[in-house]
Design goal:
Radius of gyration: 21 Å
CATH architecture of the largest domain: 3-Layer(aba) Sandwich
Order of helices and strands: EHEEHEHEHHEHEHEHEHEHEHEEHHH
Bound molecules: ligand GMT
């Protein structure tokens, strides 16, 4: 199949997932054409099956806001024609779904029917999409796509509850590529981080408000008072400088390291004992799944789709959003005993296997085929 993938190029979950899916489809022999305004962050390999088409916008003094959606629709029309795309898979509703549907309308005038598959990722539904100005466009785009998928049951329910939806939505969860995400022997690295056998806690995110990064620091502070520990903070974003300042004011600040954006997250996860994800909303929690695949149990909030990934008492624990005392108490239950920690690690890995890339990719391919058959 010739597949067009429209996504954000950043380290955000939707862009990461779209890029990993495209790369995997390409290794299975499909031709994959990425369309975005920058080369996707994880598009770090090229084969004869992978193509990248950049959307650039004419700068003109009249435009206070550059018309990205119009430029994107134009590039989609061009790529569908020149690369003979069979299907178009757009990740994140705003503005990708409506731009793709505009392109579909334009192409229909030339008797070309291109199926549009829209994948909803989270904040396009739970946060941004609910803005009154976006809501009618998001509802319309969902209703007019040829297929719509959501990354968790929770996100599917949120979509049906908050938008005017007259169609089915398939649930296709996030996935993990075990050839990349697995616990690697990094003993020298572990020794450097925890020379005295301290437990290593970790958080990765884009440091946006919804991630409640300050809760990570608060949980760590409580845990460290009971068990000497280290905290690795991976990622970058709007909240980072405020969080760094906040942690400098705590006694434990020397035990916290801000690593910024990292390419080889799996190498760092390989030396960690506990992942903390206290998010306000989280449609799935890909970062938690990546940790689990590297044998790291998860202390998280019970927001959105997280309970579909992190199983309470088995792969980690769930707490109400903001309940840092409960999160710290749960963390201590896991960290206090080597044998208990070992069992949580084992079960985290086991659970992550339910989200194996090959299985989930088949679900997407079946949806593409269903749309093609319906043409
Ligand atoms: O987490 C973010 O803020 C990034 C966001 C995105 O759309 O790029 O991630 C969302 O999509 C991921 C992949 O499907 C999910 O694993 C994340 O849970 C989801 N984030 C939120 O719902 C906040």
């Amino acid at each position: 199949m010739n597949i067009g993938i429209v996504c954000y190029p950043t380290f955000g979950g939707s862009g990461v997932l779209a890029t990993e899916l495209g790369k995997a489809l390409a290794t299975r022999g499909h031709q994959v054409h990425f369309i975005s305004y920058n080369q996707p962050a994880r598009l770090d390999f090229f084969t004869e099956n992978v193509f990248y088409h950049e959307v650039s916008i004419l700068k003109y003094p009249l435009f206070e806001y550059a018309p990205y959606e119009t430029a994107l629709a134009g590039v989609i029309v061009d790529v569908v024609k020149t690369a003979s795309l069979d299907v178009l898979h757009v990740h994140y509703a705003i503005p990708h779904a409506s731009a793709a549907l505009l392109a579909k309308e334009i192409l229909a005038e030339e008797d070309r029917d291109i199926p549009v598959i829209t994948t909803l990722h989270g904040t396009d539904i739970t946060l941004v999409g609910r803005e009154a100005t976006f809501e009618p466009v998001v509802s319309w785009s969902i209703n007019h796509s040829d297929a719509v998928t959501a990354v968790s049951e929770s996100l599917r329910n949120d979509t049906l509850q908050h938008f005017h939806i007259r169609r089915d939505i398939d649930v296709v969860p996030n996935f993990i590529d075990f050839t990349r995400f697995n616990k690697q022997p990094k003993e020298h690295f572990k020794k450097a981080i925890s020379p005295n056998g301290e437990r290593v806690l970790v958080h990765t995110s884009n440091f946006r408000k919804v991630k409640r990064v300050e809760d990570v620091i608060a949980v760590f502070d409580l845990v460290n008072k009971q068990i000497p520990s280290k905290l690795l903070m991976i990622g970058d974003g709007p909240e980072r400088s405020h969080i760094e300042k906040m942690s400098r004011e705590l006694d434990c600040h020397e035990r916290i390291t801000f690593l910024g954006k990292q390419e080889a997250v799996e190498e760092i996860l390989s030396v960690c004992d506990l992942f903390i994800l206290p998010s306000e909303t989280e449609s799935f929690g890909l970062a938690a799944l990546e940790a689990m695949a590297c044998e790291v149990p998860v202390i998280s909030s019970n927001a959105g789709g997280i309970p579909e990934v992190n199983i309470h008492g088995e792969t980690g624990y769930l707490s109400n959003v903001g309940d840092v005392e409960d999160m710290a108490a749960n963390a201590l239950k896991i960290l206090v005993d080597d044998e208990v920690l070992k069992n949580f690690k084992k079960r985290a890995l086991q659970r992550s296997k339910d989200f194996d890339l090959d299985r989930v990719m088949d679900d997407y391919v079946r949806i593409y085929e269903r749309c093609l058959k319906a043409k």
